[in-house]
Amino acid sequence: MFPEHRPRRLRTTPAMRRLVGETSLRPRQLILPMFVAEGIDAPRPISSMPGVVQHTRDTLRKAAVDAVNAGVGGLMLFGIPATRDAEGSGAIDPDGILNVALRDLRSELGDATVLMADTCLDEFTDHGHCGVLDADGGVDNDATLRVYAEMGLAQAEAGAHLLGPSGMMDGQVGVIRAALDRAGRTDTGILAYSAKFASAFYGPFREAVDSQLKGDRKTYQQDPGNVREALREIELDIAEGADMVMVKPALSYLDVIRAAAEASPVPVAAYNISGEYAMVEAAAANGWLDRERTIVEVLTSIRRAGADMILTYWAAEAAAWLD
Ligand code: PBG
Q: Of 127, 129, 179, 290, which shows the fewest CB atoms inside 10 Å?
């Protein structure tokens, strides 16, 4: 008549709940994506991502030091150039904004954090695609690979510890690995955006980087319904030399994170992207959600799904709470 089994016993006190917690969420598991823009003299707010800005070189340096002091595990840097062209040449230029900012941060922080760079052309091209275009306006996979190899090398030389190829070109991890090795940069690693889906949740990011894109990325990013294909992408990237793999976005893809975690012999990251951030911020600003509780629950769920680390715009703030 009374229950023999009482799981509630393990929920009776905060100390008991802490003792039996299955999922840890630590500052070191959080990676902060940051934006740095060329030619601005004050940080520029991103309206669809309240609290996130395009940094100047100066404010980037300060914010990066603060984030590292808060305990985050790493920083992922995106650059917004002042001018763009069809080939995205600002990505390769050692004086391009992303490379200059990497140099700033590496000299400021040394090896105190893991410095990562987005290795992709979309911020640098005047058409907004992640690669260079062929005569018909399609994204030319193999021509893009040549640019990625040079871009990756420039980022390694500028001080990135990890490169983050996010363009979803076939073979991108392999060519970047080969270029690094040929140049003797065998210590520079690759965090491959392996399973990256063509998602509507990237919307606010497109504002964040002043994206020039018209149309979509469906010929290179994955169809949201495909998990088997995600595992194939992960397998190929590992075979090409990826040191870590990523699933992106996170929240609508928790099952993909779980599948990746079970299959992958290397660490798995998940990207809690701009649209996921914006939804929570918008609801919290309206008083519809408890902001801090929601953020911790979101991050915990991504860890529970199997991600070893999470890229999140809340990284620095959440790291401070978790400490
Ligand atoms: C491509 C890139 C994108 C994001 C990170 N790298 C956007 C895209 O594919 O359109 C999205 C990140 C986010 O939405 O927070 N360089």
A: 290
Q: What share of the chain is helix, strand, coil (3-state, %, to 5)?
A: 45, 20, 40
Give the whole-angstrom CA distance, residue 222 versus residue 229: 8
Return the ligand 1 atom nearest residue 164 CA.
Answer: 6
> Ligand 1 centroid to 5 CA: how many Å?
47
Strands 44-45 and 53-55: antiparallel
**Structure tokens given for 320:** 């401070």
Q: Supply the DSSP symbol for 74.
A: E
Is residue 273 lining ligand 1, measured as CB closer than 6 Å? Answer: yes
Q: Model confidence over 165-196: pLDDT tens digits?
A: 999 999 999 999 999 999 999 999 999 999 99
Could you give the residue numbers annotated as active site? 196, 248
**Can you give the residue ranges of every domain in the chain?**
25-322
Q: How confident is the model at residue 299 (pLDDT cuts 50, 70, 90)?
A: very high
CATH no. for 25-322: 3.20.20.70
Q: What distance in Å separates the CA atoms of residue 194 and residue 166, rounded to the nearest whole number? A: 8
